[in-house]
């Protein structure tokens, strides 16, 4: 295991994301910026292509502040579109490329995006969504894409000079009620979080190679992989779809030094068998969901490196808390607040709690979002006296290390992806035979949580559980649909008639991933 390199010097006067790329292009132009398989772009090439994409946007009438939606997997075109949009002064709206037309349509309408850049595999869904909203859809077919960029003048794509407090990215997120909300992250939010990650947490140097298997449409992948690597002049090895054998191939072929993943990625690697040592690997990082202590120790044994766990949300850019590499590590802890960030725990009475007491985790600092896009009520509800309320319950020990103990919200985290129960319930309610529906998370040994649905039907001859699984599967992204469906006579309700998800208990061996329950059963244990 190689030791972490010296921390990256903080570049002066870097207040906007495009400056991270332009500085690295000047200082490390011939070094590899991103790889995808055997293809790669140097920093000079990435800078040139981003400028050409910015020129393309301007030629199509997009102005600073306009929104550009990006539904691409982890391919070389993603950083080109991401930084090119920012060069043009526009706002990036990253979207999961697995989303269906209806899901894309909501994000396009809500953000007011004028352009959607989509992958060829998602062209039909993207085109349908764009047609319904009046947005332009640009499908990034590699040969045509290359020709389109070559035809642009890079000098027409010079960075627009965004201000630090201008919105750079809108990330769609949600609680368990209402429609998804767009978290407005400013250039200052993202630059400071990326620099902190690169300098003090990962301690990156231009010789580092980061594993790029985390989705770049997610805050974790954007900040800790793409922007942190760019800030340091390091290389990012992209993997469009995580598969353990492909991941191990990438780690070996590209001499990866820092592995960034969610707990399910570590589980998959261990199941596949790491095999020969990875001599260049020096650090593992886990986020997105709680990392079981046993899994942490097993990963460290097999990979031969220290694995550090952190915590954050889309609204916090995302890194808020991290186990620092130069301090004692406490397995099971999310660590200490990072530079420029404060944490506080509030009890039910709204007062800060003491050491060892459980309270709602709140965050304040340079990483906290501007607010929810065009949702002043939701923004006001999310803050208390300048503190962002996470909805997570935690405790802090006498050394200042934080431990998340539960989630206040009913959010389901399946394999590192957020699944919002109400969204799935609304799909179930569109089925003519469904009377009531409740979606809950149930423990899963590999994914952390599995999505389960309990429904009541209009007639005894209504659809079988398998049919309801298929019904939802056709309408939402693959990670969202319930693998477990149970039919109940009634659902538990409160005095006002509200369905009480917390009183629903789904008892089943959920290690049988993918197998829906076929025996009708009541809810509530």
Automatic annotation (TrEMBL):
GO terms for molecular function: ligase activity, forming carbon-sulfur bonds. Residues 22-373 form the AMP-dependent synthetase/ligase domain. CDD domains: FC-FACS_FadD_like. Keywords: Ligase. Residues 423-498 form the AMP-binding enzyme C-terminal domain. SUPFAM superfamilies: Acetyl-CoA synthetase-like. InterPro entries: AMP-bd_C, AMP-bd_C_sf, AMP-binding_CS, AMP-dep_synth/lig_dom, ANL_N_sf, ATP-dep_AMP-bd_enzyme. This is Long-chain fatty acid--CoA ligase. It comes from Streptomyces xanthii. The lineage of its organism: Bacteria, Bacillati, Actinomycetota, Actinomycetes, Kitasatosporales.
């Amino acid at each position: 295991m190689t030791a972490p390199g010296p921390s990256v010097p903080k570049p002066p006067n870097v207040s906007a994301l495009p400056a991270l790329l332009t500085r690295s292009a000047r200082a490390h132009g011939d070094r590899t910026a991103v790889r995808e398989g055997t293809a790669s772009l140097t920093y000079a090439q990435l800078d040139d292509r981003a400028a050409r994409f910015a020129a393309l946007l301007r030629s199509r009438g997009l102005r600073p502040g306009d929104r550009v939606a990006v539904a691409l997997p982890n391919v070389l075109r993603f950083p080109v579109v991401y930084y090119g949009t920012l060069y043009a002064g526009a706002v990036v709206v990253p979207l999961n490329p697995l989303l269906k037309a209806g899901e894309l349509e909501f994000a396009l309408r809500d953000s007011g995006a004028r352009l959607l850049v989509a992958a060829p595999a998602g062209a039909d869904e993207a085109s349908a969504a764009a047609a319904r909203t009046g947005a332009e859809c640009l499908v990034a077919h590699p040969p045509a894409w290359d020709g389109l960029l070559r035809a642009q003048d890079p000098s027409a794509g010079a960075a627009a000079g965004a201000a630090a407090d201008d919105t750079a990215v809108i990330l769609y997120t949600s609680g368990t009620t209402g429609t998804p909300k767009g978290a407005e992250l400013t250039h200052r939010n993202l630059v400071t979080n990326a620099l902190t990650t690169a300098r003090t947490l990962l301690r990156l140097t231009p010789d580092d190679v980061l594993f790029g298997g985390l989705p770049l449409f997610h805050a974790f992948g954007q900040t800790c992989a793409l922007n942190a690597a760019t800030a340091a002049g390091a290389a990012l090895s992209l993997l469009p779809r995580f598969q353990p054998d492909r991941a191990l191939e990438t780690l070996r072929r590209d001499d990866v030094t820092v592995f960034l993943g969610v707990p399910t990625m570590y589980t998959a690697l261990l199941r596949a068998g790491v095999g020969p040592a990875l001599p260049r690997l020096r650090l593992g990082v886990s986020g997105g969901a709680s990392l079981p202590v046993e899994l942490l120790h097993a990963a460290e044994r097999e990979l031969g490196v220290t694995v550090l766990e952190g915590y954050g949300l889309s609204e916090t850019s995302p890194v808020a808390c991290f186990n620092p590499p130069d301090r004692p590590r406490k397995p099971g802890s999310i660590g200490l607040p990072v530079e420029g960030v404060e944490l506080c725990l509030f009890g039910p009475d709204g007062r800060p709690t003491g050491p060892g007491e459980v309270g709602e985790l709140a965050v304040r600092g340079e990483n906290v979002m501007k607010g929810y896009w065009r949702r002043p009520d939701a923004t006001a509800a999310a803050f208390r006296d300048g503190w962002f309320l996470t909805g997570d319950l935690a405790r802090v020990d006498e050394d200042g290390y934080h431990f998340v103990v539960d989630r206040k919200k009913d959010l389901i985290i399946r394999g590192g992806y957020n699944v919002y129960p109400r969204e799935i319930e609304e799909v179930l309610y569109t089925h003519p035979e469904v009377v009531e529906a409740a979606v809950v998370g149930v423990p899963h040994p590999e994914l952390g949580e599995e999505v389960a649905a309990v429904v009541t039907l209009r007639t005894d001859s209504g659809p079988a559980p398998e049919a309801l699984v298929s019904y939802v599967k056709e309408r939402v992204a693959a990670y969202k649909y319930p693998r477990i469906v149970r039919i109940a006579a009634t659902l538990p309700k409160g005095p006002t008639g509200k369905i009480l998800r917390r009183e629903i208990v789904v008892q089943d061996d959920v290690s049988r991933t993918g197998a829906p329950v076929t025996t009708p059963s009541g809810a509530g244990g």
